[in-house]
Amino acid sequence: MQRIRRALIDLRRGEPVHLAHPAGGMLILALENLSDALLGRARTLAAGDPYLLITRHRAHAMGLDDGDRHDLAMTLDADHPVETAIELASDQADSPVDRGSRAAEAAEQEALNLARQATLLPALVAIATGEEDARLNDEIGRGEVLSIEITDIHSACIENARQPERISEARVPLADAEQSRFILYREADGLLEHVALIVGDPTQWPDTPALRMHSACLTGDLFGSLRCDCGEQLRSAVGTIADEGGGILLYLAQEGRGIGLANKLRAYGLQDTGLDTVDADRLLGFGADERRYEVAAAMLDDLGIDRVRLMTNNPGKIAALERHGIEIAGREAIHGALNRHNQRYLTTKAERAGHWLEEVITGTADRHSR
After folding, report:
1. Which residues are catalytic?
2. Is 297 within 8 Å of 321 (Cβ atoms)?
3. Where is the active site (predicted)?
4. Domain of residue 138, CATH code
């Protein structure tokens, strides 16, 4: 776990990370930090030719996959590898030039998963490595370059989310729920923190308490962004849970449906060019929803909760909790206000992600007026 955590931090800092595998390792660099100097240093460590790894979402959005929906390994221009990589992985190119590509191997797919975990653009420059790369092996031995086992990436991600630790808690009276307690959980790798907001006295809760799983949204929750309805949903949920006798709100560190704040802002920029929220995320290399709910289920387990009434418009949240053994006794819609800035966003979530938003889009929603 510690080595995976350091790998995430090193990638975010622009450092190369070595991924070891019996079939052959690779040195990887995050695309969003890439420069001639960084790639130049990496090429002094490994003798192979650099190539680009992009996700199937990015490949499909740019018409590079022939409908096969594979993550791709792509050849870079030998004379201008950095410029080529940036063009292929981060620019909105209308006619990208494919200089040669193949379906990414399983190890390369795991490398892209590491970039996702780091909330970086899911695009990497990779260089194949071998025992003949003496300088790389020397720097690994001295701890200057981190080497991790590729097989550890997936298992570390799952186990990390399944083992959040309860760190601290305190009574925090809120405007809409005066009897409230905050409990902070930290994931096993120490990087992400989530909050369970306990509304009311659990000994006086209804037999089936209300639950809202709310993904953090800095722009909406804190600043009142009109591009989404997150802030209104958050405050409405707290008040409604209090009115209904108490329950739980899980405030999850899943900014931008799991892609992170930097990528959410990138997606907003793409939306300003005419893309909807789903296509913008895919062009960046992400799926329509990158969130996972193992950590939410683990928090509920720690709280002794296994049966809830879920406040959501998202059928995916119901399915996710049920997969983790949480019984959903009922669903309650929760809506914010429709405005000219969020109308397309909400319509896209309804039409392309299957969210239950017909009432808010048609103007007939009950927004839990209190």
Report:
1. 289, 291
2. yes
3. 289, 291
4. 3.90.870.10
